[in-house]
Amino acid sequence: MSAGVHIALGDYARGEEIANEARELARRVSFPPAFVSAGIDLLTVFARAHEPGRADAIMDDVARAVVAAGGWHGWLW
Questions:
Q1: Please, which residues have CB within 8 angstroms of residue 63's CB and are 6 or more apart in sequence?
Q2: Which of 10, 31, 42, 77 is deepest in the core (most CB within 10 A)?
Q3: How far apart are CA 23 and CA 67, in angstroms?
Q4: pTM for the complete prediction?
C-alpha cells in the first residue's frame, strides 16, 4: 500500500521500486492479492509515466493473476 502514496505524488521511480518489491515478495510466498495489487500499481506507474511499452510487457501476467485470484478481491480489481 505504500507504493500508492509515491505514485499519487508523482514519485514514479519510488512507486515502481516498492511495487516491484511487493510483487517479488508476493510471488515468493504465493500470496495472490498482493501480487495483483502490486501489478496494478506498476501498470498505473507506466501509464502515468507515458511508458505504454513497459505496461505491455506485464499486462498479460497481471491479467492472468487477476483471473486466478478473483475470489480474493475481484470486485475491487
A1: none
A2: 42
A3: 16
A4: 0.86
